[in-house]
Q: What sequence folds into this?
């Protein structure tokens, strides 16, 4: 395990997302962290064979992160073979009553992060241990190494405030290029390395699996009373589903706000894999474009000079991945539909931190896109 003696200055932590002024919220889940501390220490003793004593301290929820999960940062003081070492770790706990995503598969998340870390192309945190026993912390969980980086946050949006605003256009371009490279590397991961993401019970083809999953998620998120607009969008997606459906790894929450950067504007971490599937890379490209738009022009905020335009993003992706962005319009409607489902769930559980996802603007987006012709969006 890597020991961390002194953290880099002016850099946020791995899953911690906050602006430079510290204005982003902390999404506490109501857990008593003091009670968690001894339980976690006892459990860790069983995971580290040479440890004779472990003290867990400085448990804290990250700032600006954790709407869809429970993430706790902590330090472990480990005594073994007469020596003491300090480790900075991250505890990721399966969501409880605040669950945003339908049936999140925690074991798959752990296995995916482990597979990607072994592959080495995508820079993800190294996962260490998975625990299925709910009796320890109330839910299944896993522990991963803590890495350091700063994140382009959405509160306040990175195009209006924060370290990217303070950067030069050349530095922003370096960050955008590094981010696009990591996005493309996700889509170059061989399918056989992540075949455990296949869900044949949901359908034979990858997009069928994905649509069936989100159809179930719509019913669940709305308490069995989905809006007519959402049902109509789902019908449209089923009727217009692309014929060619080659399986491929889809990150599921592909956006620059789920990447961490060092002081040289290089990507050091790609996080938040709750929605990963084999639905293919086009799902990620569409999601990326949707959030790029949502965090700039759709809010009336100009995209920062140096960050790639819509067309530059598509061109970069096509050249690096080696395929055309076919059926992009369908995938963008699908992305807008998925965001509507998530917004419906957020609204039902009263997730104040995600109110923008529950807005009428988000709910109306699929209908607006269906009314467009493919390729008509602004570059």
A:
């Amino acid at each position: 395990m890597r020991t961390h003696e002194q953290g880099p200055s002016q850099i946020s932590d791995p899953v911690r997302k906050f602006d430079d002024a510290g204005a982003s919220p902390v999404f506490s889940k109501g857990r008593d962290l003091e009670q968690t501390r001894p339980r976690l220490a006892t459990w860790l003793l069983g995971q580290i064979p040479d440890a004779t004593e472990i003290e867990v301290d400085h448990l804290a929820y990250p700032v600006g992160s954790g709407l869809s999960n429970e993430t706790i940062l902590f330090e472990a003081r480990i005594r073994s073979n007469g020596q003491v070492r300090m480790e900075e770790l991250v505890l990721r706990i399966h969501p409880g009553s605040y669950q945003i995503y339908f049936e999140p598969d925690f074991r798959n998340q752990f296995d995916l992060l482990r597979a990607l870390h072994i592959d080495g192309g995508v820079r993800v945190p190294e996962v260490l241990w998975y625990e299925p026993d709910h009796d320890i912390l109330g839910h299944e969980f896993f522990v991963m190494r803590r890495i350091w980086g700063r994140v382009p946050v959405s509160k306040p949006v990175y195009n209006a405030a924060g370290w990217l605003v303070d950067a030069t256009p050349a530095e922003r371009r370096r960050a955008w290029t590094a981010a696009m490279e990591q996005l493309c590397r996700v889509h170059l991961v061989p399918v056989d390395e992540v075949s455990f993401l296949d869900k044949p019970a949901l359908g034979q083809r990858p997009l069928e699996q994905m649509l069936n999953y989100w159809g179930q998620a719509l019913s669940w998120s709305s308490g069995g009373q989905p809006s007519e607009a959402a049902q109509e969008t789902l019908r449209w997606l089923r009727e217009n589903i692309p014929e060619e459906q080659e399986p491929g790894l889809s990150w599921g929450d592909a956006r620059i706000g789920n990447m961490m950067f060092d002081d040289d504007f290089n990507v050091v971490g790609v996080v938040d894999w709750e929605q990963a599937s084999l639905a293919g890379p086009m799902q990620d490209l569409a999601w990326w474009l949707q959030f790029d738009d949502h965090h700039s022009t759709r809010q009336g905020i100009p995209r920062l000079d140096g960050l790639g335009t819509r067309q530059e993003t598509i061109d970069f992706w096509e050249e690096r991945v080696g395929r055309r962005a076919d059926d992009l319009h369908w995938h963008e409607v699908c992305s807008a539909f998925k965001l509507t489902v998530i917004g419906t769930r957020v609204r039902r559980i009263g997730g104040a931190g995600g109110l923008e996802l529950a807005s009428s603007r988000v709910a109306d987006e699929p209908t607006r896109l269906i009314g467009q012709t493919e390729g008509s969006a602004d570059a």
About this structure: The chain has two domains: 33-145, 163-370. DSSP finds eleven helices and seven strands in the chain. Residues 163-370 form a domain with the Aminoglycoside 3'-phosphotransferase; Chain: A, domain 2 fold (CATH 3.90.1200.10).
